[in-house]
Amino acid sequence: MRLTVERMSYGPGAVAHAEDGRVAFVSGACPGDVVEAAVDKDGKRCLEAHVVEVLEAGPDRVRPRCPYAGICGGCPWAQLDYAAQLAAKRANVVDALVRIGKLGVERTERLVRPCRDPGDPWGYRNKIELAAAEQRGKTVIGLHAARGEGVVKVDECLLFDPSHKKLLKHAAGALGYLANSHGLALDRVGLRGSRRTREAEIAVWTSTGPFPRAQAVRMLEQGKKVTSIVRPMLKGDKDSMRARKVTRVERLDGIGAWDERVLEEEMRVSAPSFFQVNTKGADALVSLVLEALEPGPEDVAMDLYSGAGTFTLPLGRRCAWVDAVESYGPAVRDLRKNLERANLTNVDAVGGDAGREFPDDADPDIVVVDPPRAGLAEHVVDLLSETPARAIAYVSCDPATLARDIARFEERGAFQADWVQPVDLFPQTYHVESVTLLRRR
């Protein structure tokens, strides 16, 4: 069908309308494009399509720098000018706050700052994950294809840190050979590389069971400066990512972890632990949290969903005390080790759910929350609203749940949104991070 594209969506595609009035989400399109599109999913209220031919190019269309754009699913906005990407991401945050948060157009436009660019719209990722799939009787290791159509074998990823660009081809080739010659069953492969510490890690994710350790180490070490090779072992239903659990992480070679530096703090992160994939973006998030909270030497801070310590460590340097809560076991262990390495003794690192392990005996002056995409549980909003904290810095990776949670805070009457700063941690994609200052009324 022929479509005229209107705007970018919060998703890989852009928004158009079919002749019958249904919304069409079109991958590979830009605002202002007139395209010939093929339908991938035909629903009653909306449809999904992809560009077959650009009949008229919109003003913000550029030639994608990546040759795999539209084939691999890693950079679905690569055809959109970067300034337009930043504008579209701010617009998506504004839309969520107006539509879901009910904050009103005028107020929201005042609240939301221009989307911040931390730098490096390409080559910014410190981590990429490779998928393994059976194709024509052989195991192929590569990046997920666009529209979920298998795996694309690539020699490099232009989103990955260029100082480690050869790691992808090397790891995919070595592990592909082992999979096809030694029957190695792979779940996925994680690659981490730091420009700041020069460390590189290969994480070979597999199920529990036999594993050709000696051959894997020998092949992965050949001619490459890999500082860590690990094997996270999984059990559970292979068809359900949520059901898959890490039983242990086996150190095959090297230090068994990966070091990165965020501002003045050096952190060690194990393969299962979450860490922001954009290091310069992580710098920006920490700076914004400190700007929002203005921590002082007599303050008591609370860090919920603390991970391995991205915000805990700088708060520990500046505050009298920090209560940190994290539910994921490997991240809790990383946090405690990072606190020990930093010689910070004024932090209580608690393992458990933020709601169940909420430090109810503490009276925080400042709070930072960095929840998963699902946002805050409603009872956590209640607990935070009852604290005497003067400010909350809410770090969000999803505009919809952020908008919902801001509305919940304001309904309870204790905190009000003061500003929202979108930060582009994921250039060439639709994802956007943001930091919101919630100030006590």
The second-level CATH architecture of the largest domain is 3-Layer(aba) Sandwich
User: What profile does the largest beta sheet have?
Assistant: 7 strands, mixed
Low-confidence residue ranges: none
Extended strand count:
21
CATH topology of the largest domain: Rossmann fold
Number of discrete domains: 3
Percent in strands: 25-35%
> Overall mean pLDDT score?
95
CATH class of the largest domain: Alpha Beta
Classified in CATH, the superfamily of the largest domain is: Vaccinia Virus protein VP39
Sequence of secondary-structure elements: EEEEEHHEEEHEEHEEEEHEHEHEEHEHEE
Indicate the radius of gyration in whole angstroms.
Answer: 23 Å
Helix content: 10-25%
Please report the number of helical segments. Answer: 9
Structural summary, described in words:
Belongs to the class I-like SAM-binding methyltransferase superfamily. RNA M5U methyltransferase family. Helices cover 24% and strands 32% of the residues. It folds into 3 domains: 61 residues, Beta Barrel (OB fold (Dihydrolipoamide Acetyltransferase, E2P)), CATH 2.40.50.140; 135 residues, OB fold (Dihydrolipoamide Acetyltransferase, E2P), CATH 2.40.50; 163 residues, 3-Layer(aba) Sandwich (Rossmann fold), CATH 3.40.50. The chain is globular. Helix 7 links the parallel strand 16 and strand 17. It contains 9 helices and 21 strands. The mean pLDDT is 95. It has a 7-stranded mixed beta sheet. The protein has a 7-stranded mixed beta sheet with strand order 17-16-15-18-19-21-20, with helices on both faces. Strands 1-2-3-5-4 form a 5-stranded mixed barrel.
